[in-house]
Specification:
6 strands, alpha+beta, globular, 188 residues, 25% helix, six-stranded antiparallel beta sheet
Length: 188
């Protein structure tokens, strides 16, 4: 590992720290995976219905990897690996296009932020839990998970902001113009 590589990664960390996220997002740095790339940082995020709330509407993980050897599948030296999950309303359990919608929420978030990316890949999973017997009075629970990775082109900070937009979308928060804060209210 060279000084140039460490400096390059340090600049990327600065860009992540400078990213301006919605106030409903609680971001925390956590231990990063160790064997995937020489340099890595991992962040977790919880989307809250309003600043200071205890319950979460969605959660996720954002991992930035840097490997100067530019692994072939990455199509570059950088790779972003993400996970986002949220509970949805029960009527979404039978929605046949939920996977396509979830993926479009990710690509729309990236495109709306004007970030460039390549080699995107991922899955959208729907989990439906139904209760029986002594738990039969519980409503069905529907959870959506979007797992995705892509190679960022340009500022990684803006990619973090775009990913946070995806988290807010699956949490059911309305889109907001920059600088506007939503009033607390019902989730959907």
């Amino acid at each position: 590992m060279t000084g140039r590589e460490a400096t390059t990664f340090s600049r990327a960390l600065d860009a992540l720290r400078a990213a301006r996220l919605r106030p409903e997002i609680r971001l925390t740095e956590v231990p990063a995976p160790q064997r995937i790339a020489p340099y890595a940082v991992a962040l977790t995020a919880d989307v809250l219905p309003f600043v200071g709330a205890d319950e979460e509407l969605a959660s996720g993980r954002f991992v930035l990897l840097f490997d100067p050897a530019a692994p072939e599948p990455w199509s570059g030296e950088w790779r972003i690996v993400t996970f986002a999950r949220a509970d949805l309303e029960p009527e979404f359990a039978a929605e046949p296009l939920l996977g396509q919608v979830g993926w479009s929420w990710l690509t729309d978030a990236l495109d709306e932020r004007g970030v460039d990316y390549t080699a995107e890949a991922g899955t959208v999973t729907r989990v439906v839990s139904e209760s029986f017997g002594g738990l039969s009075d519980k409503d069905p629970n529907v959870e959506m998970e979007v797992r995705a990775s892509w190679t960022p082109v340009g500022s990684v900070g803006e990619h973090l902001v775009a990913w946070s937009d995806l988290l807010c979308t699956i949490a059911g928060l309305p889109p907001l113009p920059d600088g506007v804060i939503a009033l607390p209210g019902p989730r959907r």
